[in-house]
Amino acid sequence: MKDWLNIFRQCQLILRIASWIVPRAARAEWRKEWEAELAYAWRVSQTNEASARKRLRWRCCGAFLDAAWYRCNREDLRHTSRNWVQTPAFLLLALTSALLSFAVASGNLPRMRSILLRPPYGDPQRIATISRTGVINSAEWVVPYSWVEIWRRQAQTLEAVAAYRWKPQESALMIAGRYAKVGSVRVEDNLFQVFGVRPLLGRTSEPGDAHGSNNSLVLSYETWRRHFSSDPNILQKRTTIDGQEASVIGVLPQRFWFPSEDVGVWWLGNRRSFSGDAVGVVARLKPQLTDRWVEWALQRDITNAEGERFGDSSLQVWPVQDRIRQPLIFYALALCIALLVITPVFWSGRLNLRPQCAEVVGACRWWSFFGTKSFLLLLILLTAVVEFTAEPYVFPSGKATFIVESVSLWIFSIGCLFVLWWSLADQQSRCRVCLRKLVLPAHIGRSGCLLLGWVGTELACPEGHGLLHVTETDVCWLDPTQWTRLDESWASLFSEKSETEVFG
């Protein structure tokens, strides 16, 4: 009998521990019910000595499942989730999660980092692209390769100059039996000396690399890591590109890219391979020379050598660092234009977005939520546009061409208007006190009965702080939206019991 009493006390202790899972309000009743069931099971189990003790303990352990179900039953879970979705914290958490999802999907925001961080070039302000301006479309900004030879011979304003095929192409790269489809661009062998970049593995070029019978390749860090598992012996592996025998001579450091993030292989070419083609040009300027003076000197050299007259077009020397960050300037301009369009609607007062809080803390909370929400929405839009919108080129010929041809700029401009308008509409449909989403929409009035009557929709705060009236007719003598503050006498209608009766 003493053993049975010990087992009974052990079962009581199990029930006491399981009761901690049950909500406090229902804990006493739940425990009383289970103790009564335990007492009945204890009396019944004494008739069978064989396995009664084990079954009794297992029966008490089932109380944990019952307590968990009691805590997370469907009705309470639905009620809790519905209330939480209405809170401002849920919206901010959802926007933050969306931003993090974009960051993960894009691979840690490579394009955003390349725009915002300092380029991995030596003295980037002295590295510039040379292109034509005053052209009709982006395909005309390139220059003849013969001009590059003239500038290389003159060497009055440029320390070094290199040409590259301005349009990357997809190439089939195979190294030691591993296949990859990567973007490639043919460049002169001194291009990496222009940028002042040191290889992570191997070398960038040596005299004769571009003139030999074997195709010399330089890989980007991402191509080396993603497609070839950061193989340290990749320089000795058998390589083919587009079916031609080749050799990998080096791997560039992380974050280096040119002229596009999509380029994974630089294919070294000699002067003969560029002869007669139109090419892109990148150069390192001599110290203490302005961009305008260099432009004038380069145009003078071409005019003296070939008699070229720059009438409607001219040469443009543009630092690479400024070109990389050029999209941010236009995105900021597009945002300013969207703000100018939205501001009259905001300041007109027709949306009635004034917080109904006498305290400074409440007003600061209202506007802080609006500002944080709008900032996250714009940041998500910018991230999506930069990371997932394909541009036809990275280094366009000039500002006017970028504005006309950039798909991402137009998407961002239209998206800014939509995002800001949605943010204002969401703010309008929230309680002026607790910032919860308003619920229980009800149609009030009847259209066409009274000219001066109010017809519209009425929404209520879930916590009973007030009512929002939204009119259906936009006339000058009626406010389009009106907030009515409710006093404490209305609190009973918005209690948890009343809400459960309304929502079922």
CA-based gyration radius? 35 Å
Low-pLDDT runs of 5+ residues are 392-400, 500-504
Distance between the termini: 50 Å
Please, what is the average pLDDT?
Answer: 79
Physical arrangement of strands within the biggest beta sheet: 4-5-10-7-9-8
Q: Can you tell me the overall shape?
A: flat
User: Helix proportion of residues, in percent?
Assistant: 40-55%
What about the largest sheet? Answer: 6 strands, mixed, barrel
Question: Hey, roughly how much beta strand do the residues contain?
Answer: 15-25%
Q: In total, how many beta strands?
A: 16
Secondary-structure-derived class: alpha+beta
Total helical elements = 17
Provide a short characterization of the protein structure.
The chain is an alpha+beta fold and 504 residues long. Helix content is 46%, strand content 19%.
Walk me through the structure:
There is one protein chain. With 504 residues, the chain is α+β, with helices and mostly antiparallel strands. It has helices spanning 2-18, 24-45, 52-71, 74-85, 88-105, 110-116, 145-154, 191-195, 221-228, 271-274, 291-306, 320-324, 326-347, 360-388, 399-405, 407-428, 496-503; strands at 127-133, 143-144, 158-164, 169-175, 178-188, 201-202, 215-219, 239-241, 244-251, 263-269, 278-285, 314-319, 439-444, 456-460, 466-471, 481-485. Strands 4-5-10-7-9-8 form a six-stranded mixed β-barrel. Strands 1, 2, 3, 11 and 12 form a five-stranded antiparallel β-sheet that branches. Helix 2 runs antiparallel to helix 3 and helix 7 packs across helix 11 (291-306). The protein is flat, with a radius of gyration of 35 Å. Mean pLDDT is 79; it is low at 392-400 and 500-504.
